[in-house]
């Protein structure tokens, strides 16, 4: 049995003390406090419900908590909180237990739960942009954390690989057979085809007939479509690989995959009376949205909504999802409310299955407007990553003048890519943030590089100490900076649980950033290599555990943590 986090053991103790004081069925919250190691609430609310004086009740709870080996003191605080202090012994026992646990005290609360995560979702024949970057890195961090907590995760890259735009794209290709089909040229093709579609009515007509041919499965049309999808998928895979994101071609189940299911979706909804005809379109009306969800357009075509409905049916049915996460920008939140509501009514999304839109804010340029090139185009992700790695090379070379060649390239990549991902992940998920390469590569502040350096510094201390893992001496007494570090390290498991209950990876970023600061204070106040005896062993143990926590934490964010920088 893994040793539970201190806050959890304390929570159990407070529940027992509350029971002694005559209060049952409350889940007290145990929080870190400035005035004690922890503070328990929970007394306040129950006192109100039981019409008892909160301070008197808190005093009873405090008195019922056994102090001794582990609990040093339990005192009433404020209007009815209980402040809890632990003994050095309790903290050192905890440190010793964590040091020998490769999971760092993290359990597997997600085991037996299947989560489908729909993320990344770029569009074929279009450049991936910063919005797709957000979906990709947030989705990847959630996937990694869910899996680390024991969950079964199915990744779904819901590629935009279907729709009427393929009519004009394919038609244009057929009319200009000399043009290459490479990704860079597909972008140009998109622009050219779109311009022609708007200005040339005859071309627009041919493009529309091409859509019909595509849907009817005309072999030449289908082959041209497939070539575009393949070329784009190759390009996206390259980006995923550079980003170190765990998405492969096998996870790409694009919109086209649901095509055959769309008529059935519409028919079932119509037969059940959930969808009704309105101006020729098959619509689902709700009382919360001014506009209906359009399942089938008046021309008989299906769109984005029908595809998402078919996907839910498949994810709940064939994939046996307990939870489906959609990491998609915040502007699509009404779409998802409508889709989920429709699927609930149709019985495709039973109440036992959670469907959650995990929205994120917009990436802005330094001018505070959505991040674009001067011509208003989206900035290709590939260029952004190249730029970040180039800047990182300067930062790394500056710190390490001896580093050259492949070794320099390797670190520049880890730092540059890490910087981009961290900047994205560290921002509150639903907030907009400014894409600022200078700031994201700063060595101090809330950046990926700062954390990578903090990790490398711990590793270098350990390398200088040499030898194996120390044995903790639980009888030593602790410096306040050591106590603070043990308490922060012990909050790792809870932080990861928070990430998967709120779907907010920035909580892990904030945790690691705070840990780096706590470690810095510890290292300033408590000499490690110059210490001896029990102090040295215990401090080295703290360095080991800090290094491992940084490493695991960063890897759950999808960020590399090299031992040297
Ligand atoms: N491809 C869409 C876009 O680029 C996002 C798709 C989101 N996923 C979904 N299941 N609807 O905006």
From TrEMBL:
- Descriptive protein name: Arginine--tRNA ligase
SMART domains, per the entry? Arg_tRNA_synt_N (SM01016), DALR_1 (SM00836)
Keyword terms, alphabetized: Aminoacyl-tRNA synthetase, ATP-binding, Cytoplasm, Ligase, Methyltransferase, Nucleotide-binding, Protein biosynthesis, Transferase
Return the motif ranges for 'HIGH' region: 122-132
Q: How does it assemble?
A: Monomer.
The record, for Gene3D superfamilies, names: Arginyl tRNA synthetase N-terminal domain (3.30.1360.70), HUPs (3.40.50.620), Isoleucyl-tRNA Synthetase, Domain 1 (1.10.730.10)
- The residues covered by the DALR anticodon binding domain are 451-565
Originating organism: Asanoa siamensis
BP terms from Gene Ontology? methylation
């Amino acid at each position: 049995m893994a040793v539970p986090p201190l806050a959890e053991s304390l929570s159990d103790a407070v529940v027992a003390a509350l029971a002694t004081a005559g209060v049952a069925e409350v889940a007290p919250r145990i929080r870190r406090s400035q005035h004690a190691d922890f503070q328990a609430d929970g007394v306040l609310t129950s006192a109100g419900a039981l019409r008892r004086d909160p301070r008197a009740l808190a005093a009873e709870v405090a008195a019922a908590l056994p102090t001794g080996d582990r609990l040093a003191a339990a005192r009433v605080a404020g209007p009815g909180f209980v402040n809890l202090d632990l003994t050095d012994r309790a903290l050192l026992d905890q440190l010793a237990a964590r040091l020998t646990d490769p999971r760092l005290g993290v359990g597997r609360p997600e085991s037996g739960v299947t989560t489908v995560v729909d993320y990344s979702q770029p569009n074929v024949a279009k450049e991936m942009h910063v919005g797709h970057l957000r979906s990709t890195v947030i989705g990847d961090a959630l996937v990694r954390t869910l899996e680390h907590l024991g969950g079964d995760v199915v990744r779904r890259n819901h590629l935009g690989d279907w729709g009427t735009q393929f009519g004009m794209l394919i038609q244009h290709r057929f009319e200009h057979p000399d043009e290459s089909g490479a990704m860079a040229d597909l972008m140009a093709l998109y622009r050219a085809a779109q311009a022609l579609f708007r200005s040339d009515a005859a071309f627009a007509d041919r493009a529309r007939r091409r859509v019909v041919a595509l849907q009817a499965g005309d072999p030449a049309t289908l082959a041209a479509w497939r070539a575009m999808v393949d070329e784009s998928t190759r390009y996206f895979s390259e980006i995923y690989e550079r980003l170190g994101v765990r998405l492969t071609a096998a996870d790409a189940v694009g919109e086209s995959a649901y095509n055959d299911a769309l008529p059935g979706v519409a028919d079932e909804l119509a037969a059940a009376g959930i969808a009704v005809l309105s101006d020729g379109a098959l619509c689902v009306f709700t009382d919360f949205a001014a506009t209906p969800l359009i399942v089938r357009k008046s021309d008989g075509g299906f769109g984005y909504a029908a595809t998402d409905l078919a996907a839910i049916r498949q994810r709940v049915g064939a994939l046996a999802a307990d939870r489906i996460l959609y990491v998609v920008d915040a502007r699509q939140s009404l779409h998802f409310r409508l889709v989920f509501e429709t699927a609930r009514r149709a019985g495709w999304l039973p109440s036992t299955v959670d469907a959650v839109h995990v929205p994120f804010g917009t990436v802005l340029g330094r001018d505070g407007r959505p991040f674009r090139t001067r011509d208003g185009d989206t900035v290709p992700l590939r260029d952004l990553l190249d730029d970040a790695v180039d800047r990182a090379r300067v930062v790394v070379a500056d710190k390490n003048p001896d580093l050259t060649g492949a070794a320099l390239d390797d670190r520049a990549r880890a730092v540059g890519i890490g910087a981009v991902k961290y900047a994205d992940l560290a921002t509150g998920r639903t907030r907009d943030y400014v894409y600022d390469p200078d700031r994201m590569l700063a060595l101090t502040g809330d950046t990926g590089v700062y954390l990578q350096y903090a990790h490398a510094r711990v590793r270098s201390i350990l390398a200088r100490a040499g030898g194996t893992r120390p044995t903790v001496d639980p009888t030593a007494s602790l410096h306040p900076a050591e106590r603070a570090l043990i308490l922060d390290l012990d909050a790792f498991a809870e932080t990861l649980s928070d990430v998967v209950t709120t779907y907010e990876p920035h909580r892990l970023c904030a945790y690691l950033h705070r840990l780096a600061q706590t470690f810095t204070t510890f290292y300033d106040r408590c000499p490690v290599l110059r210490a001896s005896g029990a102090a040295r062993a215990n401090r080295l143990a703290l360095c080991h555990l800090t290094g491992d926590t940084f490493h695991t934490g960063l890897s759950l964010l999808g960020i590399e943590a090299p031992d040297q920088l």
